[in-house]
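1st attempt posting a full record on here, be nice pls
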Amino acid sequence: MCNVRNSSYQYHHDTSYDRHAMTGHSLDWANQPAVFKHYEGIQPLHLPQAMELPKRFLSSLMKEPAEHDGPLDMMALSRILFLTNTFTAKARHPDGDFYYRSAASAGALYPTEIYVATCGIDGLEDGLYHFSIHRHALHILRQGNYASHILAITRTQEKRVPILTFFLTAILFRSAWKYRARSYRYHLLDTGHVVENLALALRVHNRGVNLSYDFDDHRVDHFLGIDDAREFTLAVAHMFGGEPVAERREEEVPDLSETVRQASIVSAKEVAYPDIGTTHRAGADIARGITAETEMVQNLGLTHQGLSKIEALASWPEDMGYPDALFHRRSRRNFVNNPLSKKELTAFLQILCNEGLSVPESIYASSVATGFLVNQVEGMAEGFCLLDPEHKGIGMVAQGAFTEKMARICLDQRWLANAGIHFLFLSNLQVLDHTWGARGYRYAMLTAGCMGQRLYVAATAMGLGCCGIGALYDGEAAALLGLNEASVLLYLVAVGAVKKI
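the predicted structure (as tokens):
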């Protein structure tokens, strides 16, 4: 276990909102961070954009196995990146156009960056690249085959060649500009949103994702050439080919230029929040515990009144295919007082039970428990329920009206009271610390982000509204739900019928 001062429990407590102790905070608009990373002197390599997109429903994408080892080309990589994170809407402002993206982000601040290392992609030189979303282009940072080095620094036991390795980072000041020390929560949630999109994009190509939140932080950051005081790597995803790595070597690679390192700077005047760096660095050690005894739902201090089995649906009530649902995803919050159907709720529960996408290892899935507040669902009483993914069931913890109280707890955002369901992602912070050390906080928050993005895309596919909430009065939320002292609500995602535009 990490020491108490540097624990996830301490960080979460220190950055909790208290209704009676909130301090004022004005935004420094003159130093608003740039939302695009820029590499001085490196010419962009534009990816092909005349791509064919899949015509499939999300339900079929999630249910079908992803097993294919054939070659990939530059067009396939372009499609994967396009489906992982792309522009979906434009807003006009006096100082220029602002573009919204397919992955949800707290405050539309978009801290997450994507890098990809390639090995054997047809039409593309082997190397390490940064993905430029606003150009849909790559900037090459390193040339050559780094397969052996990548396996070493990501602590991967796989012996096959990683033909694609995606590195997802967060630029700290983009979110800290608004959310200050609390922003590490949003770095993790927002990156989890992008991870989920990546998992879906790889399944489009019949590829599973080998996802890892466990890697050598320092060596991975060095490989990417980022300033690790300003930008952290949070997730790695491999796509393996069929060929074995010729030789695994613990080689070192040269430093990238100071120009590359300075690309992590996004504002002329950046304010540092030490709690972010302290908490992140406290999680540098990977200390895996015994996962069989750490099912989070058993550690919240809650009991339910018996499980009801989740119905097995052959199909979900989808009005829109993937990827149209991805491109139309918005934080839609104009909820109306129309109940969700039982079939819609069942589809969401199946989505959250699915272990075949972005959280294939139980170590990550077991860091979070899922609950939900029923407001308006056909045939269901109002109340607080827990989801048991292993047994595919739900249990009622307490009956009663919760959503209006929860709306007040979410910084008095009263529109939340009209949502049909509030999905809740919960964790016991002391269990995280004791089991996995401070790195366990990354597991929980990234997993919550993945699940939240899954709900966003699914809700859009079903013609429903969805909005994630990370800003809440933390102690009040725990008290309302009856959580024990060490347990917290990490993330709330509201889903429901919305006013038609």
